[in-house]
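FORM 7B - TANDEM STRUCTURE REPORT

SECTION 1: FIRST PROTEIN
SEQUENCE AND TOKENS:
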Amino acid sequence: MSHEQIVHDDHNTVIWLAFKEGNWEAYTQLYNQYFKILNNYGHKFTRDINVIEDAIHDLFIRLWTNRAGLGNPVSVKNYLFKSLRSIIFRKLQSKSRFVDLENEAEHNFPFEISFDQQIMADEEEQELQKKIKFHVKALPARQQEIIYLRFYEGLGYDEIADIMEINVSSAYKLIYKAFDNLQDVLKTSKLAIVLALYSCFCINNHH
């Protein structure tokens, strides 16, 4: 973890503690700081903007209502991700669009891979990244989600496991299953795939 990340996390912890004590300014600061990234994360499960925004609002209403009994998460962002994920799934279920957490093919997980043109070494790497962009979208939803969390959000496997409500071992197995699927269609090494994924996603913009 970088020094900047530690400072950022410490700052968020201060805001979180102030919010828990009933500080309205801290509460609105949390909302303003995280609304955009929560909205973006919500789009990984549904394109229904009303469901997403309603879920975010429900989340923050619950936070304020239950603030006195909340714990102190190591990562505020990860806590909010996990909470929003659960709320969205419940809302989709209530709309008779059942999302089976155990069946990775059941829910949508659309997202776009970003490219950093400056880190593309040559035409061969560019071609591999284009193929990865295409084939990642064809992966089962939970495999897409773990790639998003790992390479786009830059989260560790313990954090991913917490958000996806699986154990760390299952997180490793899930991402390597995704690598296997990509390797089958791309006919290249896992190392090349991992390096290309790091190049595809703007990981440095988040950490």
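SECTION 2: SECOND PROTEIN
SEQUENCE AND TOKENS:
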Amino acid sequence: MSTVQAQGAVGRQAPPPRPRAGRDPSLPSSGGTPERLAGLDGLRALAIVAVLLFHLDPSWLPGGFLGVDVFFVVSGFLITTLLVRERVTTGRLDLPAFWTRRARRLLPALLVCVPASVLLARLSEGDLLVGIERQVTGALTFTSNWLEIAAGSDYFAATSPQLLMNLWSLAVEEQFYLVWPPAVLLLLAVARRPEARAGAALLLAAGSSVLMAVHLDPESPTRAYYGTDTHVMGLMLGAALAFAYAAPHRAWTRTPWWGAHRRHVGAGALATLAALLVLAGEDSAWTFRGGILLASLATTALVLVVVERPGRVRALLELPAVRWLGARSYGIYLWHWPVLLVVGQDLPVAPGGASYLLTRAWCVLVTLAVADLSYRFVEMPVRRRGFAGAGRELLRRLRALGTRGARVVWSVVLLLVVAVVAVLLTAPDRTSTERLITATEAGLADEAAPGPTPTAPTASTASTASGEPTGAAGPAAPSPAPTAAPAEVDWSMPAGSEVDAFGDSMMVGSSHALRYHLPKIRMDAKSNRKWSDAPALVAARGDGLRRAVVLAFGTNAGTDVPALEETLAAIGPDRMVVVVTVHGRYARAERDNAALREAVEGLPNVRLADWDAALAGTSGQLQPDGIHPSLKGSHLYAKTVRSAFAELSEARTGRPVELEDRPAP
């Protein structure tokens, strides 16, 4: 995410001086030494805090990813303001100089962050390097968003976090920086009135919003979210405001209406944005069909309020600590995601408890420290001196070290370059979790086929289940069919041979532990399954469905309550059922589990195996992806399922169940 600084931005608002001949009278002149636009660093700080909270734990701020759209609006406003001001003061737009300034602003920190992240990931966990060649290519060519769309990546999928995932938005902005300046030059030449230019930008924003709504796939919103065409509305709204603010009426802020309602506009915009940050979830279609546009509109109104004149909102945004964050927001955005992933691998702690909060706090501290170092020693030297000047200064300092010191430095640099290349060439093509699940699925395929296992053993039938089988030497002697009273349902603790289990990759990864703690359990599990697959899987068992059933879905698409209810109806009220909760650092996990609890509440034959609660405050229980159970965690998963059956049995029989404490092998 580029957080463009207002280098030479518009000065304080004052009546524009008489324009020089040949200049557009609607465009503001610089009026002397330009000044920083007050309040915008504070808006950047608000944006980066929102994004950081969302990535630390989506449940803390479910709509925090909308901070990206705050950045987009601010960038669109500032870039267009800079272009318009240059046209006023010089009578032309020097596009090569503009693009050079953008490169000076963005490339130094990026060229340090990307290789450093690659090396740190290699030292931490190799799984973080899956797809890294594509990610590095996208980062260096500013095409990350389109490369990830082509690869089928999912921004909101916590099961496959990518090391450089956050750079998609930097790609969108860089593409905007490439295309928008010529477009501005054309608009300035064709449309004489600033209102017409603003109208053109508004039409582009509206078109982008429509495209996002059209392209949205609720099951995988990445195309709609990543696409430059579908996610440019914030940049265009900021640009529209810049055009309107360049008019003599300063975006109509010199009218009596604005004077009377300015505070209400600011309060309403701030309240709207805050509500969206809290309520707009990644799994809600309305977030993408209007929510992002509304957040961008609210940000646009806030920008106008804070730059137009001093006030309480601007005063808050101008606090020193807030400005400090805003000035370093680009570095914070670059570094926070790789830091989160690397620290998460080195200190794997499940959400919940003081240890988890401490690891999150450590991520924040490391991010702020690295971003500050980047700001002082990487970004600012190049911004002040340019690439050539910063290079000369670097060479001067190397010469000051002497020949031996310079050789050491260049040797280290060469070694790091070779190391990065070696890591890229040897990066894995699949994660260890994917390899494990694929190998395990092959073994489960035959087991999943329906067999002749008798249905729902009862207390009476269970007692005869071990009797002599019918001989094969000849037909059995006919015997009259006895008339028996309906047998009572067996609610005793089921053995593994009495359990059918259906699930997704979570069950696949825990299959060996389930067999260990529930010997002879029969499993039908496969990656990428959803709750909508469950009814057909249960129906396929027919009368062979065992008397106890485990259902473990929801990792991929959340809780589908109608499908769950249909599955439970197919199983019937005379079988024991355990439903496993989901776990993940994504915003919907808490809602998914709440929906599960509500759906099974009051059903006497169903219990929840609360896998999510079992993980709280633990460490080492999950694979590097932070979702699937590790070898250690798979035994916790199996014990959680077994304990749920025991609780259900105790509740229905009134007799305590003593479970054998089997240590993990």
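SECTION 3: OBSERVATIONS ON SECOND PROTEIN
The mean pLDDT is 85.
The first helix runs from residue 40 to 56.

SECTION 4: SIGNATURE
Preparer initials: ____
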